[in-house]
Amino acid sequence: MTDQEERILRKNIDEVQQNVETMQEMKIYNAMKRGIVEGKNREKRRIYTTGMGVVAAAAVALIVTYSTIGLPNKGAVQPSVQSASTKNTDNFKAYRSFSRLEPALASALEQNLVVPVGESAENKGYRIDVTGAVTDGRKVYVLYSVQNNTDEVVIHADFELQFEGIKESPLHKGASLSMLASESRIQPGQSMDFIYSTNLSPTIQYPKKVNYNIILTETSDKALLSSSNKYRTSLDVAFELDPDMLKAQERMLDTDGTLTIDGQKIKVTEVQYTPLSTYVDLAYDENNDKQIFQLINPVLISKYEGVEEKYYYPTLITADNSEVYSDNSKATLVFRNSEKIVKSKPDSVSLKAFGISAVEKDQMKIVVDLNKYQLIEAPGTGLELVTPKQENNVEEGEILLRRNLENAQYLEGSTRLAETFTDAKGKVHNRATSTSSFSSYTTSKDGSAVNEFGYNFGAEAKNYPQPLTITLEKYTNPIMDTQAVELYSKN
């Protein structure tokens, strides 16, 4: 495993600790993690460490973000055999009745936009049936089921949609897998339905021919800790998916509107309406003195034949959660779809926000004196060093931090710290791997939040020239300032 892969793996582990409640799925994840760490010295192999979300449809929807196990070169894996599927989709009835569908997919099913695929593949007693798919060129969904005809319990170790002719499709990071069940494990003799989804780049012309691959792994400790293909099975299904399948039903608005919040300029470059969603593309002005992480409670307001429609609570596409963007200078707000506006242009469109989460670019750091256990510098307010308790099991050279936030109800709760730090004489050191550090983000009904996280400088760091400086890669810092801008008007 390369240093870069180790850094990404550590980031994903931090995200798991931030976002996941204790559940059985984490036992599987931890075993997979141990298998990666212990197996890296036995065999050089490619490890996919990009984030994957697994949504469990239990009483409360849970999201597990973990790094995939990965495999040696696919050429060494026994290939699956593809054939036409005989599975009766029943007009995607199982998916239509699932209460936790993403709004975009729910809308696609309601409008009968999901196209049947009807292809399957079998390998070593497992079968995948790809039943349907849909895309608006910005988001893609693949609906499929996995049948387990073996005596072993299995889970997904990896999944990926690959477009033919694009060597490295920018799709793996941020891809998610939802299941129509209470857990991800597929029991012997059972079948389970899944939904794969990921974001597509608006600047890439994707071909029609795609291949969907999954890798299943047995769940015994021996299997999860092993780096061998013996316990893993690859299944590939090739089919056609037209990225322009909904092109005739989309509407594009070119805008030149700039939203200015707290003196920071945010240009809205485009508004795109599709039958699945409404996309608002943003570009942050390079001359801004603050690094913007997100807008606070953005609202898209459209008027159509005198009737005003407001779109709230968008999801956010950034370089942090997708490979659609390569840096943090751009982002996309994804609102629900508008059936009216895809048919004809609105009278007017405007964007309103109640503030931003941002930090001055020259303050993107946390400075700590490790020997005095003292916080010297940090952006914003509310960050403090926490005195470790025995149950925290902190390691020598590790600190714990706590951040109290107000107006956090519309914010993505995450802090990401760099994998290197600098001592007082300017020497750069690598962050130490921690087996005990934790991170949590809890919100209250009043809109406040508490974010706790750790950072391990390493046992030798107390001997470095103090203080020590950590660069911030992502930091939640709400700045309230309500502003709006008109993006489009017929007049």
Molecular structure report:
The chain has 5 helices and 31 strands. The relative contact order is 0.12. The radius of gyration is 24 Å and the shape is flat. The model is unreliable at 1-73 (pLDDT under 50). With 491 residues, it is mainly beta. The chain has helices spanning 3-19, 24-39, 93-96, 103-110, 221-225; strands spanning 52-56, 62-66, 81-84, 115-123, 126-135, 139-148, 154-163, 176-179, 191-199, 209-218, 232-240, 251-254, 258-261, 264-273, 277-284, 290-295, 299-304, 307-311, 315-317, 330-336, 348-360, 365-369, 374-377, 383-386, 398-405, 416-422, 428-430, 439-443, 449-456, 468-474, 478-489.
Task: Set out the fold topology.
Layout: H1 3-19, H2 24-39, E1 52-56, E2 62-66, E3 81-84, H3 93-96, H4 103-110, E4 115-123, E5 126-135, E6 139-148, E7 154-163, E8 176-179, E9 191-199, E10 209-218, H5 221-225, E11 232-240, E12 251-254, E13 258-261, E14 264-273, E15 277-284, E16 290-295, E17 299-304, E18 307-311, E19 315-317, E20 330-336, E21 348-360, E22 365-369, E23 374-377, E24 383-386, E25 398-405, E26 416-422, E27 428-430, E28 439-443, E29 449-456, E30 468-474, E31 478-489
Parallel strand pairs: 1-8
Antiparallel strand pairs: 1-2, 3-4, 4-5, 5-6, 6-9, 7-10, 8-9, 10-11, 12-14, 13-14, 14-15, 15-20, 16-21, 17-18, 17-21, 19-20, 21-31, 22-23, 22-30, 24-25, 25-29, 26-27, 26-30, 28-29
In short:
With 491 residues, this protein is mostly beta strands. The chain has five helices and 31 strands.
